[in-house]
Amino acid sequence: MNIGIVTDEISPNLSFALGAAAALGVDRIEIRNTASGRVPDLPEDERELLHDLVDEYAFTVTAISPGTFKCKLNAETLERQFALLEKAFDFAEEFETKKIITFAGERSAGDTPDNYKRAVDALARAAQLAQKRGFILAAENEHGCYNDTPENILRFHRDLEGSGLMLNWDPGNCYRSGCTDYRDVYEPLKGIIANVHIKDTQGPNSRVPWTALGGGIIDWAKQLADIRRDMPSVDLSIETHCFPLLHNTIHNLGYVKNILKGGVNHVR
Hints:
It is built from nine helices and twelve strands. The chain is an alpha/beta fold. The chain has a single domain, classed as TIM Barrel (Alpha-Beta Barrel). The strands form three sheets. An eight-stranded parallel β-sheet has the order 5-2-1-12-9-8-7-6. Strand 1 (2-6), helix 1 and strand 2 (28-31) form a beta-alpha-beta unit.
């Protein structure tokens, strides 16, 4: 299976993060944030550094995450988000990746059906633009967005069926939004999963939501067994989310590898 790391889950410092990833034997990376900001809006010197590091360590860039549509959607913000998406296409092309992770728009208690339709229409348009440029657009299920809870994830992607929009499946975010069994979402939508984020959570009511793998409520052994059965070549990106980042990323990487080797992990 293809195991990679979201680089800023080691450090936003590119030299440190990519050097550490290489030292850990990882050759697949997902790029999101750096010391200067979020892709694709990096200064030229940092882009050159990223090129040098990717070449030096022979990394495959599996995806970029520019944060598109992670906001309230209205006429003004949509214009900016589509402009950002076009820049993300160029950045993805530059770094030779075909996969772009996006979000589905932030929802609020006062939303009307028109607000939801605006999000669906925007993501349909975005997915079609991505296809025209030869990219895969995958919407990450995210707490507080239109695809947060299991019910909302299913509704959103069913309403976008046929648009080409894929799913960046994040069980951690799903459990953080009240999920009790990943299969409620995974089974009906596994045919459109293009990328998987791996992290663990102590649930929606925890004061400290994120924890190292094995310390939370997700049965990653079962989820990974299902993924291996259904989509053995999908990219799995370690997205640690809890400090200390490097220490916990090393733990998480070992935890996943041990599961895939058939080993038994113990809760920390």
